[in-house]
Design goal:
The chain has eleven helices and 21 strands. The protein is of the alpha/beta class. The protein has one domain (about 1-415): FAD/NAD(P)-binding domain (3-Layer(bba) Sandwich), CATH 3.50.50. Strands 4, 5, 6, 7, 13, 14, 15, 16, 17, 18 and 19 form an eleven-stranded mixed beta sheet that branches. Strands 1, 2, 9, 10, 11, 12, 20 and 21 form an eight-stranded mixed beta sheet that branches. It has a two-stranded antiparallel ribbon with strand order 3-8. α1 (about 15-25) packs parallel to α8, α1 crosses α11 and α5 crosses α11 (about 390-400). The longest helix is centred in the N-terminal third of the chain and has 26 residues, at about 100-125.
């Protein structure tokens, strides 16, 4: 069976669902295909942050050198699994080239624009009837367990202040006003008031359901099996549920986007950065944090998840598409949790989760039209900021498709920049 459609979106995570809603509201005929369920990938188990203050790209001075030092420590915050892989080698080469002060600051400016516009869109979406996803603006509290990370946190705070962010440095008394239950040994921190959190699963499913309600077609358990091209454009897409003939194709498949991009003849540099999280059912109303916390020494995030749960999660592991759960990584995360909050020795845990974040060499997403395939638009590569950038990415893709002036300059995020 062959189905004609105006827009075909590949990927049912937060980026794909956001794009489906914005394009449907722009009056386009939208079909979204997802190989599993809506929100089955990285959108499901992330740190739950809308990280308005997280604007320094992963690629920053000294990061690769530190990562190489940590390479043989599977419990380190940035673990690169030793392996021979040409794509990883190319990715690391461009990552290192992006780790300069000048490129970091340019990247930060782009991320701040994305963050700021997305926060406003989240506020508008949260105010809509029927879109319930636990959106709360309570800020983000960075915690320091050592002098080394206190200095690093203050240095980053100064950079962000220079970019116009409101950042507040705190001593122990200031910390206790925001988070009274902190363990002894946490003596300093930095507070980013312009930060929110939410339930990412509720968000993604609500966006997809609303898009479907407004006219989009959402097809789950529909995997892309092949592409056919004609005259430099995609003419057909084969799936496990038939063939589609789209006018425009939006690639929003997260970490798997690089595989599909290579198949269609528009390769991009991107690595699957595996992250871990554990969702904990609270034994009492007092257990867990009152607002999102970041333990800078171990790069562990701790976030309230509704009234009855909280989640703790870690940063990234470059190990390819390796689905295994690293028990050392989970133990390090739990140790960080216990170092900053009381009553964490015994946890009512759900099964540990791991997922792949799509990480580009310079830490900026790929948003824009392909130079190699005329009707292919990329909406991927958001790294650890996929939830944060969901709404603004959907809006930008809608503007590209409809020929409007983009709300944000797209040049720094063009898909063919490497």
């Amino acid at each position: 069976m062959t189905t004609k459609t105006d827009i075909l979106i590949i990927g049912g995570g937060v980026i794909g669902a956001s794009t489906a809603l914005f394009l449907t509201r722009a009056g386009r005929q939208v079909t979204l295909v997802e190989k599993a369920d809506i929100c089955a990938g990285a959108s499901h188990g992330n740190a739950c942050w809308v990280a308005a203050g997280y604007a320094l790209p992963t690629a920053a001075p000294g990061v690769l050198g530190q990562g190489l030092k940590w390479m043989f420590d599977s419990g380190s915050p940035f673990y690169i699994k030793p392996r021979i892989n040409l794509d990883l080698t190319r990715w690391l080469w461009h990552f290192q080239a992006s780790c300069t002060d000048a490129k970091m600051m340019k990247g930060a400016e782009t991320l701040l624009r994305l963050n700021g516009q997305s926060i406003q869109l989240f506020r508008e979406l949260a105010a809509e009837a029927g879109l319930e996803f636990g959106y709360v603006e309570a800020g983000l509290l960075h915690l320091h367990l050592s002098e080394k990370y206190r200095k690093a946190g203050e240095k980053e705070a100064e950079i962000m202040r220079g970019l116009g962010m409101n950042v507040i440095s705190l001593d122990r008394d200031g910390l206790e006003e925001l988070e009274p239950k902190l363990q002894e040994g946490v003596e300093s921190g930095v507070f980013y008031p312009e930060h929110a959190h939410l339930n990412p699963t509720h968000l993604t499913k609500a966006l997809a359901a609303q898009a479907e309600k407004e006219g989009a077609t959402i097809l789950t358990h529909t995997a892309v099996t092949g592409f056919q091209k004609d005259g430099g454009r995609i003419s057909q897409i084969d799936t496990t549920k038939g063939t589609f003939e789209p006018q425009e194709v939006i690639l929003a498949a997260g970490a798997w986007s690089s595989i599909l991009a290579k198949q269609v003849g528009a390769p991009i540099l991107m690595e699957p950065a595996k992250g871990y999280s554990v969702t904990v059912k609270k034994r009492s109303a007092d257990q867990g944090p009152t607002r999102p916390l970041a333990v800078d020494d171990s790069k562990v995030a701790i976030t309230p998840l509704g009234k009855d749960h909280f989640r703790y999660s870690s940063t990234l592991e470059l190990a390819g598409f390796d689905p295994s759960i690293n028990p050392t990584r989970l133990a390090v995360n739990k140790k960080a949790l216990q170092a900053v909050l009381p009553d964490m020795e015994v946890l009512d845990e759900e099964a540990p989760w791991s997922g792949y974040r799509p990480l580009t060499p310079d830490g900026l997403p790929y948003i824009g039209r392909s130079e190699r395939v005329s009707n292919l638009i990329f909406a991927t590569g958001h790294g650890m900021l996929g939830v944060t950038h969901g709404p603004i990415t959907g809006k930008l893709v809608s503007e590209i498709v409809t020929g409007q002036e983009p709300s944000i300059k797209l040049e720094p995020m063009r898909p063919d920049r490497f």
